[in-house]
Amino acid sequence: MATTTRPAPVSRAPGASIGRELERVRLEHRARRMGFAIAALRDLSDARAQNGAAPPALRQAIAGFSQELAQVRQRIEKL
After folding, report:
1. Is residue 21 within 8 Å of 38, Cβ to Cβ?
2. What is the DSSP string of 8-61?
3. Can you list the pairs that 30-38 forms with residues at least 24 positions away whose Cβ atoms lie under 8 Å?
4. Which residues contact 9 (CB under 8 A, 6 or more apart)?
5. Phi, psi of 35 (to 5 degrees)
6. CA 51 – CA 24 distance, rounded (Å)
7. Within 10 A of 30 (CB to CB), how many other CB atoms are there?
8. Would you put residue 52 in left (φ > 0), alpha (ψ -120 to 50) or beta?
9. pTM of the model
10. What is the largest CA-CA distance in the chain?
11. In whole angstroms, what separates CA 22 from the centre of its chain?
């Protein structure tokens, strides 16, 4: 039996274009992926901290992804 998927309902504000809506969806998806990556890096950092100190590069990666995630969320708010 074939399964069909239906597109999610789109509620656009007056004056919003489909391009902006697609960008919002793309950015929200990116923010979710980045959130998962940050959580995984934090888990790894915690595990490494139990065996000593987490490598500086790992802490820098977490900080960098967190900063980028904040920028993505700001872009979403502006849309």
Report:
1. no
2. PP----TT--HHHHHHHHHHHHHHHHHHHHHHHHHHHHHHHHHTSPPPHHHHHH
3. 30/72, 31/69, 31/72, 31/73, 31/76, 34/65, 34/68, 34/69, 34/72, 35/69, 37/65, 38/62, 38/65, 38/66, 38/69
4. none
5. -60, -45
6. 41
7. 15
8. left
9. 0.71
10. 55
11. 15
CA atoms within 13 A on the CB side of 79: 20
Amino acid at 35: G
Question: Tens of pLDDT along the chain (79 residues)?
Answer: 555 566 655 555 566 789 999 999 999 999 999 999 999 999 999 988 887 788 889 999 999 999 999 999 999 999 8
In the numeric block, which tokens belong to residue 22?
A: 């697609």
Contacts 24+ apart (CB under 8 A), 43-47: none
> What's at 57, amino acid-wise?
A
